[in-house]
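Predict the 3D structure for this chain.
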Amino acid sequence: MALLIVAGGASAEDWTLLWSEDFCSSAGWSVAASHVIAPASCDLEAIPGGWFGATYMTTGTWDPATQGILKIHVENLQATGSGADNTQLAMSVDADHRTVDATGNDFLELRLVGCGSCGPDYSWTVLWKDDGGSLHTTTHPLAGDWRAFRMDANITLNVPLLRYWINYTVQGGSDTGSFTGLWTNDVDGPFAESSAFFLNFWTYASAGNWYVGETNAGEDVGLYWAAAPEIPPPPPPPRKHVHADFGWTEGELGTQFYDRSVGDGEMVAWNWSFGDGYGSRRANPFHTYMCRGNYTVILEVEDIYGERGTVSATYRENITRPLCGVITRGEEGIQIDTGEHLITVPTAVFLITAMLSASSLAMGFEIPFVPRWIRWLLLMVSVLGLMVTFGFIGSIGMLLRGG
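Done. Predicted structure below.
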């Protein structure tokens, strides 16, 4: 998934490319044992079994004294482990850090962790070590188990202000967000020792495999710098499409449908088609099928950003109600199918008619051209309509048959 990158408070043209890598045609990477660059699938792969390092690394000429903001862009991170399996990807920034066991000084390391048996622990974890020998750790929990999904990430480091941002999107899942934090600058800080830049990847998986850049055509890993001295706002997470979804709960009076769609923003519009000629624009509509059969239910949603998604499912109705094909309970009142037209009698009509008829009969008022027997009939019809509308009976036919 291609990303529109706007990060670190600088527009896209303010960033200078240090280097980027496309694993469809890789060059410049040192590959350790148990890892392979697979141009056919455009990714960098690792098999399970233990930490491997130094695994992959590319050098550049990055000077944190003059190139104060660094951005790391990574596409399609994926671990295929699940359950209690432990999967970790570690990215180390600096020329001094060579092994994943936290030896060496002056490094900043970012770990993407998915461990079903560790709490469980699904997080971005940031570690740094200064020349004084102190190791520091900050953990940013993720909302759920991201494994088996691909993840995109933009990571921004502001060296003068000692601040980082991690922005991520889980493709196919519901998790997207930003984390930010500070690292300490004891003695000379994690970047003071060398201007040579290394981005080292380590992977670990107790089961399954690790992939970086899987199936992504184009830049899989990219590094950019900017010289902005002020603190930037966090860049937005990569945009993803709306994932439309819905469910339902069956009852004696009908079916309650409910929206389960997720996306970058809140859902603001819904368009339901129930497969029997009726529809709704409510988020969680109630619908009564009068006839037994299979119906294709379609939901189209739109979020606050204008992104849309559509999903459909087959609903099975096992009940044939007495007035199948003629009358049904709708959202606004009673819906009558004449065979040529669909007529909706609003609930307000029944309510007003019932109130006028009942008050005139109770208080003895006479209404011109509307004798008492007609007002009694109108009152009974209105009450029946209200009972159907509000769910006290499933249909008029059920009442007429003593149901």
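Residues 324-403 form one domain.
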